[in-house]
Amino acid sequence: MDMIFIELQKNSDTPLYQQIYNQIKQDMIDGKFPVGMKLPSKRQLEEFLGVSQTTIEMAYDQLTAEGFIAAEPRKGYFVQAIEELAYVQPVKPEKITTVPLTESIRYDLSPSSIDTEHFPFIAWRKYARDIMDTSQAHLLLLGDPHGDMELRQEIARYLYHSRGVDCTPEQIIVGSGTEQLLPLIIRILGKQARYAIEDPGYLMTKHVFSENYRQTFPIAVDKEGLDVKALQRSNASVAYVTPSHQFPTGTVLSAARRTALLNWAASDSEFFIIEDDYDSEFRYRGRPIPSLQGMDKGENVIYLSTFTKSLMPSMRIAYMVLPPQLLETYRQAFIPYSSSVPRMDQHILARFMADGQFSRHLNRMRKIYRRKMHTLTNLLKLYEPNISFSGDEAGMHVLLHIQTDRTEKELIHQALEAGIKVRGLETYRVMPSKAPPSFLIGFGGLSEEDIILAISKLLDIWNIKKTVTPR
């Protein structure tokens, strides 16, 4: 046969065998080599190209492994039919034109932001280094589907002392976020369950229920929290609530409504409450609000919480506490499932909690967030009564109410043009409202200086004037 032409770039970073392989394969794809054509022998190609026979062998072996050529004993290498190969030549994509962002966000007032500057990196790194050791090789294997016992024990201990949650480690299920645990709860409660959701409320919750084809009933939220009388009139059998710091309004479910809600759940064996305690660690007035789970005598509360606010959103560790009557149902339904949280992350967190680092971190961050909250609210008071705010008892955002003729969308767009990102309350509503525009003002990820600059700029572009001159 005739020798094939291969151009080698010997100064290239691409290995010579790879260059030979690439060119022969491409020529075959382009149809330059007919099916059945015999390729030069390894010795012939070695002499022609001036490379080692090992280089030729590596190229031919790769082509053979991928089915482009076939070796026949004592005969040589032959070209195979491309159409018989399970191979698709990639289509070169058209050039994608990226549209530059017209808005540059200078201040992000999203309620999900946290303070990253004061994260205990040194302590966390120590525990991570201890875990990433050959003595912990067993953590490379699958662990308990409910989450490793070491972490569940620490969570149970923490919940009892900080939130009054009465549970055993066996009742705790660890998962990779509320959005991963909620579908499990939906499966446990069965297809007959009908869900009441807060309105306004957490958008992800409604999305999860809709994706799982579950019926939902929006229940209004007022200054006392969820309207329990409206819940009682609905056809719901499960109520999803954020009682300690309602999201997004920031209201606290009143004592009377807590009792009424628990009584509603106790009135029927099929009724349950899903208590999402997403940021109860950060309360700035009075004593911590007791959890519904700790008050529950009928074992009708499913408790949910996460480390998103208290540590970091990216860690993706959340947990739920199941009532004993649902725990057995869960075990029967999810025995084959593996835990969705890496075991090493679980054990780093468990040691962080066991040594008291988590409690110290929370105490430190509570003081930091309290200062930020005071900075924000003291500034907002200078604009009253042109504005008002609520939800400043806990959490990392307040609800700002504006008296204006402009719409919420107009104000959001105006803020965005000035480099400020805000979220409007209407975003979180199921049923539309005619109330004046309200906005979630998150302060967790901003410094105190940036809070002052951002709020001053925001209210200035909205043409809201101060009514009090600061001293």
Description:
With 471 residues, the chain is of the alpha/beta class. The chain has 15 helices and 16 strands. The strands form 4 sheets. It has an 8-stranded mixed β-sheet. Helix 2 crosses helix 3 (53-65). The relative contact order is 0.12. The model has no long low-confidence stretch (mean pLDDT 88).
Short note summarizing the structure:
Helix content is 37%, strand content 14%. It has 471 residues and is an alpha/beta fold.
Question: Could you outline the blueprint of secondary structure elements for this entry?
Answer:
Elements: H1 16-29, H2 42-49, H3 53-65, E1 69-72, E2 76-79, E3 107-108, H4 121-131, H5 149-163, E4 172-175, H6 178-189, E5 195-199, H7 203-211, E6 216-222, E7 225-226, H8 228-233, E8 238-241, H9 255-266, E9 272-276, H10 292-295, E10 301-306, E11 318-321, H11 324-334, H12 343-354, H13 357-380, E12 387-390, E13 397-402, H14 408-417, E14 420-421, E15 423-424, E16 438-442, H15 448-461
Parallel strand pairs: 3-14, 5-6, 5-8, 8-9, 9-10
Antiparallel strand pairs: 1-2, 4-11, 6-7, 10-11, 12-13, 13-16, 15-16
Helix pairs in contact: 1-3, 2-3, 4-12, 5-12, 6-7, 6-11, 13-15
Q: What characteristics describe this protein?
A:
single chain; 471 residues; alpha/beta; eight-stranded mixed β-sheet; four-stranded antiparallel β-sheet; 15 helices
